[in-house]
Every structure is written in C-alpha cells, then in structure tokens.
C-alpha cells in the first residue's frame, strides 16, 4: 500500500470534501478520487458514504483513520532514522504528558542539547494511554509517565521525584481562609492523599490538568494551588507566591519508559544519566 494513498485518505476524512482535499494536497479532484478508489479496492471495503451531498466516513473508514495516522507517523520516523542518518545524527523520539513537560523536561532537553551533540530530538505530547501504545509500536523511544508501566519487554525507570507544595498569592494564609483554590490533576495517588488530608476543608473553585496553566491563572487572578516546587521556586523567591503554613508536601514520581530491545538503548541510557532531577 502506498503512503500517498493513506495521506490522501486522511485529508479527505478531515475535510469530507474531495475538492477541498485536492486543493490542500495540490492535486486534481480526479487524482484524489482515484486514490480513494484504489485504497478502497486494496482493502475491499467502502471508506466513504457517498449517498449524501457531503461525504461521510463509514465504520470501516473510521477504523482506518487511526491505523493510517499510526502508519504515517511510523513512515515519518523511518524517513528520519534512515534519511538523516547520513549526517551521523541519532534521532531520539520523546513523548510525555503535558504536565511533565511543564515540570522537568524543559531543563532535560537543554542538557541533551549541550551534552549529546550527535542526538537530534523529536518531542511530542500524548495521553498516558497513547504514550504506552507508542512505545510498544516503536513510534517513541522514551515516554515519561506518572504511573509506571510493567512489562517484560519494557524498562521502567524512576527519573524524578517532584515535591508538590501548597502555594498562594496571599501571604500568611491559613487553610480555613482559602477561597480561590485551583485543583491540579497529578493522578489518583496525589488526589487521594489530598482528599484524606483536607477532607472538606478546601473546595476547589476550578480544575486544571496542567500545572503551568494553574500557575499562570493564580498569578493573574489570585488564588492557591498545589504546584511543583521546581515550577514556583522563582515566584516564591520574588514574593509573588507564598507557602501556606502547616500543610503537607505531596510527592509525585516520574518514570521513563522505553523498550529493552531498542537499537538506541545506549543513547537512551546516556540521555537519562543527565536527567536534571532526583534519581534513586
């Protein structure tokens, strides 16, 4: 199956219009229609319902969308691994959930840039479920997760312990006076600790999945949140944020996940050796 058939299918599935897809791909409408027809013949199924004025994906078309995206991503990875290999650079594909990028990975990328001259980085953001899948299908070399993954063919290594502390834009604030509290999702282990300790003492005003979004929000609107020490250290030093006294510090562990049978294993291990935070 030719890659251009899949890329054409994805464009049509996105626009649901042959003319628009043809314009976006710089092809004729006849060429786009011919590619879709050839793909349907190769697979032996109908990918689009053409009974209405506007195209509609069939159930088979919906299923192909996911596989087509994975195949195109893999093809891009192959081209980078093989095509750019002539300049002796090692292509390292790294993925993480957004909140981990915010907390620790920015500094790590800088360390790789300064210390591993032969490494070319490709970074992406995915959900935890998608990260595990991308590792298994070799679309990623390293994934960073809050929840560890255990499998015979996967290495899971703790690379950081992130202290989470309750901070506020108001100095000398007591827990009973907290009103504009922003709840940040660090996973169920931290969420359950929070519920056990504070019970009904703190009622969240808003819920946010990314620490940096919560940080920017309270700096602008005022309020409190549990934030990573690494993220709010400078703001505490400049007295833009203040620690809330007599409150517990929660911890969140970060894990690196990678395949044991990876031809880039030595590079992965070198990269993790210069990880900038606590390792044990």
TrEMBL record:
<keyword id="KW-0238">DNA-binding</keyword>
<dbReference type="Pfam" id="PF03466">
    <property type="entry name" value="LysR_substrate"/>
</dbReference>
<dbReference type="InterPro" id="IPR036390">
    <property type="entry name" value="WH_DNA-bd_sf"/>
</dbReference>
<dbReference type="GO" id="GO:0003700">
    <property type="term" value="F:DNA-binding transcription factor activity"/>
</dbReference>
<comment type="similarity">
    <text>Belongs to the LysR transcriptional regulatory family.</text>
</comment>
<dbReference type="InterPro" id="IPR000847">
    <property type="entry name" value="LysR_HTH_N"/>
</dbReference>
<dbReference type="GO" id="GO:0000976">
    <property type="term" value="F:transcription cis-regulatory region binding"/>
</dbReference>
<dbReference type="InterPro" id="IPR005119">
    <property type="entry name" value="LysR_subst-bd"/>
</dbReference>
<feature type="domain" description="HTH lysR-type">
    <location>
        <begin position="1"/>
        <end position="58"/>
    </location>
</feature>
<keyword id="KW-0804">Transcription</keyword>
<dbReference type="InterPro" id="IPR036388">
    <property type="entry name" value="WH-like_DNA-bd_sf"/>
</dbReference>
<dbReference type="Pfam" id="PF00126">
    <property type="entry name" value="HTH_1"/>
</dbReference>
<protein>
    <submittedName>
        <fullName>LysR family transcriptional regulator</fullName>
    </submittedName>
</protein>
<keyword id="KW-0805">Transcription regulation</keyword>
């Amino acid at each position: 199956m030719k890659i251009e058939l899949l890329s054409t299918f994805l464009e049509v599935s996105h626009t649901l219009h042959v003319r628009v897809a043809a314009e976006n791909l710089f092809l004729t409408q006849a060429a786009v229609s011919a590619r879709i027809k050839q793909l349907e013949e190769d697979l032996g199924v109908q990918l689009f319902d053409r009974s209405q004025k506007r195209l509609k994906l069939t159930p088979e078309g919906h299923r192909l969308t996911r596989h087509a995206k994975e195949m195109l991503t893999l093809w891009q990875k192959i081209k980078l691994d093989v095509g750019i290999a002539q300049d002796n650079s090692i292509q390292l594909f790294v993925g993480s959930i957004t909140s981990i990028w915010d907390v620790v990975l920015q500094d790590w990328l800088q360390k790789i840039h300064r210390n591993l001259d032969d490494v070319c980085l490709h970074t992406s953001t995915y959900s935890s479920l998608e990260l595990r899948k991308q590792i298994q299908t070799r679309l990623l070399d390293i994934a960073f997760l809050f929840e560890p993954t255990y499998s015979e063919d996967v290495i899971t290594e703790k690379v950081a312990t992130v202290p989470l502390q309750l901070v506020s834009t108001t100095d000398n604030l007591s827990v009973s006076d907290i009103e504009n509290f922003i709840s940040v999702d660090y996973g169920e282990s931290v969420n359950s600790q929070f519920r056990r300790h504070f019970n009904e003492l703190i009622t969240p005003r808003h819920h946010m999945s990314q620490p940096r979004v919560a940080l920017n929000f309270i700096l602008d609107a005022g309020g409190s949140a549990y934030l990573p020490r690494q993220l709010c250290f400078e703001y505490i030093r400049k007295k833009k944020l203040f620690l809330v006294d007599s409150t517990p510090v929660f911890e969140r562990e970060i894990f690196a996940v990678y395949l044991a049978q990876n031809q880039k294993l030595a590079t992965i291990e070198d990269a993790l050796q210069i990880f900038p935070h606590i390792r044990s």
